[in-house]
Every structure is written in structure tokens, then in C-alpha cells.
């Protein structure tokens, strides 16, 4: 159930860091769209993790058309030890807007195994897929990303965390 446990390392991302990295992603994507002007037609966020980065990218690139695709991924096992991740679309973006994805910027917070993006790319083969963070296994599924972490690293996002008291290192109790 808890995917975090087998991971050796933790990569903790603050709101401030996420804002900087999403801005860096926007700057990298600026002018990279199809056509002479290099403009993007729309931003599509993969919910839910892609929504905050997508908002920041849309703001930086002055893109007002923003849609969402909801993808649920789950583990399926055929009774064997090797569990396979499967993904399913729960909600699609506007079909007339999307076409095959040309000029559309699809944004997610990270790519891990690549299963989520594999499905999204199969639906919109002409879209440009970008994430803020990437792990090696999923890297071939993204055109643009900002920071790569190792496969055995779990990325902790600010919306999954809270500030809490920590005992002094040399305190009595
Ligand atoms: O490359 P993959 O192995 O498919 O994993 C990456 C996906 O997993 C997480 O989303 P999750 O499905 O946990 O849902 P959430 O965004 O709603 O938290 C993350 O936000 C990516 O969308
Ligand atoms: O490293 C991760 N962090 C948060 N959510 C995730 N979903 C897949 N991998 C990760
Ligand atoms: Mg997600």
C-alpha cells in the first residue's frame, strides 16, 4: 500500500523549491511549441500532482486554456511476485481541444515508472510531455524535465507534508 517504504532515500521538496523548479520548467518550454511563434495552445495537468506545476507553467507562459486529465494507477498481480503497475483514465480533457495533442503541453509533477505517461502519450501522441522531476525508468516518457533523482529515491511533495516539532538532538526527552 505505502510505496514510500522500499525507497532508500528521500528528496524533500518545499513549496519554494517547487515554485522555482516549475518556473524553470516554464522557461525551458517557452517558445518550444509548434509553428513559427513556438506558442502552446493549452496546458493539460495530470491530476492531482500535476496541477500545481501546471498552474505555475500556465502563469509564466501566459496560457489561459488549462484542462485536466485524471489518471489512476494501481498495482495488479497475477498471483506472482512481480507486480505490474497499470493505469486507467478516470476523466479525459476536452476532445475538441486535444486532437492528437499537437501544441498541447501536458504537465505532471514527476515521472517514476513511466506508466502514467505511457498511457497519456498513447492517447495524445503529438503532445509535449513535461515533468518537474524524473526518475531514470520513466525518463524516456518525458520530452522536458528539470531535475533527475535516482530510482530508489522517494520524492516528498509539499502538499503531502506538514511542519512538526522535532526534539532537540541532545535534549532530555
Ligand atoms: O511514472 P509513474 O510510476 O506512473 O508515477 C508517477 C505518477 O504517480 C503520482 O501520481 P499518483 O498516481 O500517485 O496520483 P496523484 O497525482 O493524484 O497523487 C505522480 O503524481 C505521477 O502522476
Ligand atoms: O517519488 C514519488 N513521490 C511522490 N509520489 C510518487 N508517485 C510515484 N513516485 C512518487
Ligand atoms: Mg500524479
In short:
The protein has 173 residues and is α/β, with parallel strands linked by helices. It has 4 helices and 8 strands.
The total count of helices amounts to: 4
Strand content: 25-35%
Main β-sheet, spatial strand arrangement:
4-3-2-5-6-7
- Kindly report the CATH topology: Rossmann fold
Spatial gap, N to C terminus: 33 Å
CATH architecture: 3-Layer(aba) Sandwich
**Uncertain ranges:** none
Give the number of domains: 1
Number of strands: 8
Which class best fits the helix and strand makeup? alpha/beta
Q: How can the largest sheet be summarized?
A: 6 strands, mixed
Question: How would the global form be characterised?
Answer: globular
CATH class equals: Alpha Beta
Mean pLDDT: 93
Q: What ligand molecules are bound, each kind once?
A: 1-O-pyrophosphono-5-O-phosphono-alpha-D-ribofuranose, hypoxanthine, magnesium ion
